[in-house]
Amino acid sequence: MIEIDNITKRYGDNTVVDNVSMTIAPRTVTVIVGTSGSGKTTLMRMINRLVEPTSGAIRIDGEDNRGIPGYELRRRIGYAIQGHGLFPHRTVAENIATVPGLLGWEKSRIEAKVKELLSLFQLDPAAFGPRYPHELSGGQQQRVGVARALAAEPNILLMDEPFGALDPVIRAKAQEDLLAIQKHFGTTIVLVTHDMEEAFHLADKIAVMDKGRIVQYAAPEDMLVNPATDFVETLIGVGERPFRLLSIGTVGEAAEAGTAEGEPLAAATSQRDALSSLLWSGREALPVVGADGVPLGRVTLASLARRAARPR
Question: pTM of the predicted model, to two decimals?
Fold first, then answer.
């Protein structure tokens, strides 16, 4: 658990983060959003003390982070940034092994962890371990950057605009990789982005910042239905609310009894993508199948329209 208690950061007369309090539950994904200069990156960087607060306290599992030496804290908390920040003259394997090596892990344990992480990110350890960053695509570099941040098995992973430089196709795959890895390790993730689509796709809870303050901290559905301020409503996008509601849920959750013709939809497909498939195919319903291919029922245009409507 991360407890942020009345945190303020000032640079001279400029208050960048203004008396922020929030609690981040363990094993969840919290996304901090806001316009440029709203203080979101500064707030996140105070968790691992890359930025020191002017006042207030941050506790990690009940322990004040000021009581932990900065270098030790930063080894315990994974950190991934836009552009990956890989060491260019180290191989992929050596990059991932950086923090475990600093922590004095045995060589066999480090090698096992490098292989595990590369495999989880669908990068063959024998093929990719000896390569250098410049020999990888942008998406592969980003995956290695996240793998390096996870190598020392941190309970917390901080991510600052991690996918901002990726093209849309690679970005979507990187987001899915992140969610799968988060579930695998049970990591608590705090991610900063300016992309609301990304926020609603990834987050268990979203914190909206404006002028250094948290103006709303809520689950995505709660924020969509009850935006706390005009600023939050504008950031969400009034015209996007029905589609964002559908992007939160899966087809498996919307499946109902019955059969339908057409290309089956996987249960993990978002309801928004299901709506797109239905409209493009010209069908009123499509079948839904589980990961094992077993039919689960069908999803219909009518049911998705009901789910996209504002709850009453």
Answer: 0.83
